[in-house]
From TrEMBL:
InterPro entries: Bact_HTH_transcr_reg, Chorismate_lyase_/UTRA_dom_sf, Tscrpt_reg_HTH_GntR, UTRA, WH-like_DNA-bd_sf, WH_DNA-bd_sf
Protein name: Transcriptional regulator
PROSITE patterns associated with the record: HTH_GNTR
Keywords on record: DNA-binding, Transcription, Transcription regulation
Taxonomic source organism: Actinokineospora globicatena
BP terms from Gene Ontology: negative regulation of DNA-templated transcription
HTH gntR-type domain sequence ranges: 4-78
Alphabetical list of CDD domains matching this protein: WHTH_GntR (cd07377)
């Protein structure tokens, strides 16, 4: 097996230093700290400036640093929010014992404050959504969308599609926020989800996403899809866009080992 490229080794070393808030060339690598210059880093690590530049580009793509023109390169480390794929459970409660939607519970458990902007619409299903929900193309679907914030910082966009008849039966067909979350609401109306198919991918952020999330250049977004069922009936399709510099998705395997996806 061939060794990792020099720039990757350097990037890993710098990443570890940033995450541990170590001191490098007299600079404590905390959020907002200005990194040493490329020539200084090249001399310190006995590498070429090209290698240093490649390593820094990789860290920028992960959202750990950002370049501010002639001002230099700075640490930009956001605290990660860990979202477990098993957290969408109708009986989940927050630390105070209150019934809340699963995402709010996760944020509160991290010691931060959740908020969201809610949007609602009813529209004909596209061919892709119809196939996922097992309804006819152009059948009506209820769409509930939330732009989510953590301590007022844009954190993710979640859009969920529901078959219209199911949404109507469960009281999801009105433009109001549901404090307990739609998964618990459906469970209370007899639609207890017993199967969820999770799909996790990534892609470069669009210009609109870079602006909305204030992303550093090169930061990608995670695309997290959930297709849920209750007794073989499709209940929803959820599509979530999460900036990769502030989110990590985990799940628990059958043997109890936690795995980062």
């Amino acid at each position: 097996m061939s060794p990792a490229p020099k720039y990757r080794e350097l990037a890993d070393e710098l990443q570890d230093a940033i995450k541990s808030e170590a001191t490098l060339l007299g600079v404590k690598l905390v959020d907002g700290a200005k990194l040493p210059t490329e020539p200084e880093l090249a001399e310190h690590f006995q590498s070429s400036r090209g290698t240093v530049r490649q390593a820094l580009a990789g860290l920028a793509a992960e959202g750990l640093i950002e370049t501010r023109g002639r001002a230099g390169t700075f640490v930009r480390r956001l605290p990660l929010l860990e979202y477990n794929v098993d957290s969408e459970h109708p009986n989940r409660r927050d630390r105070a014992g209150s019934v809340t939607d699963s995402w709010s519970s996760v944020v509160k458990a991290s010691g931060r404050e959740p908020s969201q902007d809610f949007k609602f619409r009813i529209e004909p299903a596209t061919s892709g959504v119809a196939a996922r929900l097992d309804v006819g193309e152009n059948s009506l679907v209820v769409v509930r969308e939330s732009v989510r914030y953590v301590n007022d910082l844009p954190w993710s966009i979640q859009t969920t599609f529901y078959p219209y008849e199911l949404a109507k039966a469960c009281g999801l067909d009105e433009p109001v926020n549901i404090a307990e979350g739609t998964v618990r609401r459906m469970a209370n109306r007899g639609y207890v989800e017993d199967k969820i198919v999770h799909e996790i991918g990534s892609r470069p952020a669009t210009a609109a996403e870079r602006a909305q999330f204030d992303l550093a250049p090169g930061v990608s977004v995670l695309i997290y899809r959930r297709q849920a069922y209750a007794k073989a009936e499709t209940t929803r399709l959820t599509i979530e866009i999460l900036p990769a510099d502030r989110n990590v998705i985990t799940h628990i395997t059958d043997n109890g080992e936690e795995v980062t996806k």
